[in-house]
Amino acid sequence: MLFYRILADLVLVIHLAYAGFIVLGMAAILLGIVLKWQWVRNFWFRLIHLIMIAIVVEESILGVICPLTDWEDQLRERPRNR
Fold it and tell me: N or C, fewer C-beta in 10 Å, the chain?
């Protein structure tokens, strides 16, 4: 069904945003140190970034499939209209 495909695409966009925040956040922190950007020292930015990384590391260590990947796969496997 189109509805489930749209939901799967939405989950994919959320997943991409999550991964993008981790990668681009790390790049911004490193670049911010060099360029002396004050906003990269924001406590909440750093804490959220660290927690998000810790979640990914924990999933990897425990061998858990990312819930977003699993959810997207389940939505894509829904029966289609014939």
Answer: C
CB 68 within 8 A of CB 15: yes
- Whole-number Å distance between alpha carbons of 52 and 63: 17
pTM metric for this prediction: 0.86
Structure tokens at 8: 């799967």
Give CA–CA dist 22/9, Å, rounded. 20
Distance CA 47, CA 12 (A): 24
- Residue-wise pLDDT tens digits, 24-64: 999 999 999 999 999 999 999 999 999 999 999 999 999 99
Distance CA 35, CA 41 (A): 12
SS3 category, 9: helix
Whole-number Å distance between alpha carbons of 23 and 59 = 17
